[in-house]
Specification:
Strands 2, 4, 5, 6, 8 and 9 form a 6-stranded mixed sheet that branches. This protein has a 3-stranded antiparallel sheet with strand order 1-3-7, with no helix packed on it. By secondary structure, the chain is α+β, with helices and mostly antiparallel strands. The protein is built from 2 helices and 9 strands; from the N terminus they run H-H-E-E-E-E-E-E-E-E-E. Keywords: Signal.
Length: 190
């Protein structure tokens, strides 16, 4: 009787597994079936034109600014009201690069930007510099065109005065280079 009960339990378990596998297959097929509405022809044409304009463009920036604290994502920042800092205070910068290249790897697109900087006084003397101190890279099935380049710096020992922070980006995929300059002031110690 114990042998018969074990066989019955195995048959029930097999039937449950078969039913589960069949149901999973049906649900999987439903999940991959397209039920969404395609964008309008005008919208699809606009996306195509945007893609062509992006590919024809050089690396550039649509936004560069000092911020209150670090950015938390694309468009997620609070602009700083002024560019006056105290010695040793952190300088947070937000930048939105555009026109960088993509490398197609099978079904994914990859990008990579590196950042370098120079700190200069008003006479042009380089006070600090570092090449390739930050890397912004990623990949995905779609071309990611919304990168939030969030940078932060902390310079100590600077006398009160006017300075320039030159930041240079290199597109390691597309080969382009671009940068921006943000002037700032170090205030006198109280």
């Amino acid at each position: 009787m114990a042998l018969l009960a074990g066989t019955t339990h195995r048959r029930i378990a097999s039937a449950v597994l078969i039913a589960t596998a069949t149901l999973t297959g049906i649900l999987s097929a439903q999940a991959t079936t397209e039920t969404s509405t395609a964008p309008s022809e005008a919208f699809a044409e606009a996306l195509n034109a945007y893609d062509q304009a992006w590919e024809a463009a050089d690396l550039a920036f649509t936004k560069t600014t000092f911020t209150e604290g670090a950015s938390t994502g694309y468009g997620q920042y609070r602009p700083r009201e002024n560019a006056t800092f105290s010695d040793g205070e952190a300088l947070f910068i937000y930048a939105e690069p555009v026109g960088y290249g993509f490398q197609e790897n099978g079904s994914e697109y990859a990008y990579e930007l590196t950042a370098s900087y120079k700190l200069l006084n008003l006479s042009g003397q380089v006070l600090a510099k570092e090449d390739n101190f930050a890397v912004f890279s990623g990949n995905g099935r779609s071309k990611k065109r919304e990168i939030a380049a969030s940078l932060n710096f902390r310079f100590s020992g600077l006398p009160a005065g006017e300075y320039r922070l030159e930041t240079d980006f290199t597109d390691t995929v597309g080969g382009g280079r671009s940068g921006f300059v943000l002037p700032f002031t170090i205030s006198a110690a109280d």
